[in-house]
């Protein structure tokens, strides 16, 4: 069986001959799978599986393991992330519609053909909004995918136009509680396991007025059926009580460690309940009487389910990545208050919250201060994401002189022939972090990537690195 190596440069070059002066046949990203056919001194003759033509690669430019790969999938107006790590495959949100599923089928086609199925260690739904989980329904319905555990924040989604008679809020039962010395309206109804979901779906409360299942019910029906067929192991509600994502809890340098930073329940033991959040325009920053329930702003369904998104921070070698779902201003203030002087949000790469919405808190952005931001959005004109103030603020509060901003929507290219979807890549070997997107005009070219090391020093850093020479030219 041929030996396998992996690209170890931000762009690993495959040459036509055994010399760096030879014609460049292909540029492949860090971590790309390369099959070795010939070993000659300092050089290897390799082929790729599906990343273009093979060639000769210098041994200094390859490694024996792929490291960490993160794909920010262009799912349109939504979020979809895929993380390939030494611990296994992890999915964070599946977008709306079918684009995420189509990408999964394409990327893992060889594994499906050769091994029969793809093993998914963790499927994470940041929160129950359709543009974050609908794409998972097709994955769960396909026998080619097996899921060890589905992680979710526990929040239910009753149909707002067909609420059970005992409810007045589409996320479940509400009660007034005292939380941290202040009266709050609290969501007291959440689910945890597959059996919890099975019991809730059996109530019939998750159908529309016409008797059709909601998208939320379709998801859990698919999960339950896959579980009964032996293709889904467990479901688990995830909060900061868990501290880390099960199966991703080793802090070893060559392992992926996943820290859980949200959501934050009202208490650290017992039943899981969440403070409800108001619309951002209804925030009361400081109440006159914390014990007066009449001062509590009205709860917002969207801000509560978005605001209690699962928040994950990934650690691999020297690098960190933040996934924050659809956090909004009330939620970000809630997180800042909880962590106080601590700052667990600082990272190298941040998946921007809520697709580039205006609903962000500058103080939270200052805590994150990454070297690169990624926004996932689509052409849905009812949202117009990403909006100008979000893009400006994200870049303003990104570190370095050359902040990196990636957008799945901007990376997308549409022609009369087809759509080239705007996939964003992040790759790390623990010491080098690179991000890339495919060039719009790349057909029949050896270098198809716009790639950047993180932190980025500028395209012409090497030319301008001599300070005296730079001043003379200026």
Protein model, in words:
This is Metallo-beta-lactamase domain-containing protein. It comes from Hyphomonas beringensis. InterPro entries: Competence_DNA_uptake (IPR052159), RibonucZ/Hydroxyglut_hydro (IPR036866). It contains twelve helices and 27 strands. With 474 residues, the chain is of the alpha+beta class. The protein has two domains: 62 residues, Roll (SH3 type barrels); 277 residues, Metallo-beta-lactamase, Chain A (4-Layer Sandwich), CATH 3.60.15. A nine-stranded mixed sheet has the order 15-12-11-10-9-8-25-26-27. The protein has a six-stranded mixed sheet with strand order 16-18-19-20-21-22. Strands 6-5-4-1-7 form a five-stranded antiparallel sheet, with no helix packed on it. The longest helix has 14 residues.
Describe, in short, the structure shown.
InterPro entries: Competence_DNA_uptake, RibonucZ/Hydroxyglut_hydro. The protein has twelve helices and 27 strands. With about 475 residues, the protein is of the alpha+beta class.
Question: What's the topology here?
Answer:
Blueprint: E1 4-7, E2 11-15, E3 24-29, E4 33-40, E5 43-48, E6 55-58, E7 62-63, E8 68-72, E9 80-85, E10 88-94, H1 99-107, H2 109-115, E11 118-124, H3 130-141, E12 145-152, E13 174-179, E14 182-187, H4 194-201, H5 215-228, E15 232-237, E16 256-262, E17 274-275, H6 301-307, E18 311-316, E19 319-323, H7 329-339, E20 349-351, H8 362-368, E21 372-375, H9 388-396, E22 404-407, H10 408-411, E23 413-414, E24 419-420, E25 424-428, E26 433-438, E27 449-453, H11 461-464, H12 467-473
Helix pairs in contact: 1-3, 3-5, 4-5, 6-7
């Amino acid at each position: 069986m041929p030996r396998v190596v992996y690209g170890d440069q931000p762009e690993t070059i495959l040459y036509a001959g055994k010399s760096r002066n030879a014609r460049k046949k292909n540029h492949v990203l860090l971590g790309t799978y390369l099959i070795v056919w010939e070993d000659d001194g300092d050089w290897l003759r390799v082929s790729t599986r599906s990343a273009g033509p093979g060639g000769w690669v210098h041994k200094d430019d390859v490694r024996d393991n792929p490291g960490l790969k993160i794909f920010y999938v262009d799912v349109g107006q939504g979020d979809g992330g895929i993380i390939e790590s030494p611990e296994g495959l992890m999915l964070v949100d599946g977008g709306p519609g079918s684009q995420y599923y189509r990408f999964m089928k394409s990327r893992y086609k060889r594994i499906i053909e050769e091994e029969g199925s793809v093993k998914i260690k963790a499927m994470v739904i940041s929160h129950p909004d359709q543009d974050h989980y609908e794409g998972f329904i097709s994955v769960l319905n396909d026998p080619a995918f097996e899921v060890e555990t589905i992680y979710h924040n526990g929040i239910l989604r009753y149909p707002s136009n067909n609420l059970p008679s005992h409810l007045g809020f589409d996320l479940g039962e509400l009660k007034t509680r005292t939380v941290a010395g202040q009266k709050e309206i609290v969501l007291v109804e959440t689910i945890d396991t597959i059996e919890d979901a099975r019991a809730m779906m059996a109530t019939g409360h998750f159908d529309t007025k016409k008797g059709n299942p909601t998208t939320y019910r379709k998801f859990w029906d698919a999960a339950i059926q896959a579980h009964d067929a032996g293709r889904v192991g467990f479901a688990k509600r995830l909060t900061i009580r868990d501290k880390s994502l099960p199966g991703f809890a080793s802090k070893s340098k060559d392992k992926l460690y996943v820290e859980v930073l949200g959501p934050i329940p009202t208490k650290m033991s017992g039943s899981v309940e969440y403070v409800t959040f108001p619309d951002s325009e209804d925030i009361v920053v400081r109440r006159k009487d914390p014990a007066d329930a009449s001062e509590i702003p009205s709860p917002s369904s969207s801000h509560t389910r978005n605001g209690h998104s699962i928040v994950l921070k990934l650690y691999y070698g020297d690098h960190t990545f933040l996934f924050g779902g659809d956090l909004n201003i009330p939620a970000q203030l809630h997180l800042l208050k909880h962590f106080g002087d601590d700052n667990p949000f600082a990272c190298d790469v941040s998946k921007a919250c809520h697709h580039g919405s205006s609903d962000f808190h500058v103080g939270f952005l200052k805590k994150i201060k990454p070297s690169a931001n990624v926004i996932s959005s689509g052409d849905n004109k009812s949202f117009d994401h990403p909006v100008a103030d979000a893009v400006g603020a994200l870049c303003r509060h990104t570190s370095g002189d050359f902040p990196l901003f990636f957008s799945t929507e901007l990376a997308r290219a549409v022609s009369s022939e087809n759509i080239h979807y705007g996939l964003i890549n992040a790759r790390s070997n623990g010491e080098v972090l690179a991000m890339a997107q495919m060039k719009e005009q790349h057909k029949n070219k050896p270098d198809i990537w716009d790639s950047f090391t993180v932190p980025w020093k500028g395209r012409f850093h090497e030319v301008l690195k001599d300070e005296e020479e730079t001043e003379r030219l200026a």
